[in-house]
Amino acid sequence: HAAACPDLAVVKTGPATAAVGDQVTYTLVYTNQGAITDTSVQLTDVLPAQVTPNTSSLGSGSLSGNTISWSLGSLAAGSGGAISFQASVTTNASIGQYITNLTQIHGAGAELNTNNNSSMAVTRIVAPSPCATCVVGYPYASTNPLTSVVFSESEVLAAFNTNVTGVTDTDRKS
């Protein structure tokens, strides 16, 4: 039979898409699926050049260049945990580009299965939403006591001969 060994594993998740300026969250779920404790366990995350980490979200992680490292110490058989952190998509990301973020886990023990020691999240850069937060300040009423102007959004759109589709106009007077 096989000797008892640790079997460290990591699964990384991140967004499928993001736009320049977005803050994204990556989550790293790590486990020891082996039969014995592993020691000196290190979790590392290599960030692509198109993201900048939010250093206040790294917890006990340390940043060196584009690599974040967490020292997990000993990881008992059957145990694990999760780490999440945020990063911002930088202006050097191009629409349509795919960026890859790689995570790896390793310890002092010899593993028979290293196929699950790394995981990656691939994110496609998309165009920013044309209107992330749309606020229309209508209806409008003048605060000037010399005027008595009051108008609605539909009246403004009609005045500019603007055709809006897919919207039910509830206050337009025919």
Overview of this protein structure:
This protein has 174 residues and is mostly beta strands. The protein contains one helix and twelve strands; from the N terminus they run E-E-E-E-E-E-E-E-E-E-E-E-H. It has one helix at residues 153-159; strands at 8-13, 17-19, 23-32, 38-46, 51-53, 62-64, 67-75, 80-89, 98-106, 118-126, 140-141, 150-151. Strands 2-10-9-4-7-6 form a six-stranded mixed beta sheet, with no helix packed on it. It starts with 7 loop residues before the first strand and ends in a 15-residue tail after the last helix.
How much helix is in the residues? Answer: under 10%
What is the string of SSEs from the N terminus onward? EEEEEEEEEEEEH
* Poorly predicted ranges: none
Instruction: Please identify the structural class as seen in this structure.
Output: mainly beta
Shape: elongated
Mean pLDDT: 85
Count of helical regions: 1
Find the count of extended strands (DSSP E, 2+ residues): 12
The main sheet comes to: 6 strands, mixed
Spatial extent as radius of gyration: 26 Å
With strands numbered from the N-terminus, the spatial order across the biggest sheet is 2-10-9-4-7-6
Q: Give the percentage of residues in beta strands.
A: 35-45%
Distance between the termini: 85 Å
What labels describe this entry?
single chain, 174 residues, mainly beta, six-stranded mixed beta sheet, four-stranded antiparallel beta sheet, 1 helix
Spell out the blueprint of helices and strands.
Layout: E1 8-13, E2 17-19, E3 23-32, E4 38-46, E5 51-53, E6 62-64, E7 67-75, E8 80-89, E9 98-106, E10 118-126, E11 140-141, E12 150-151, H1 153-159
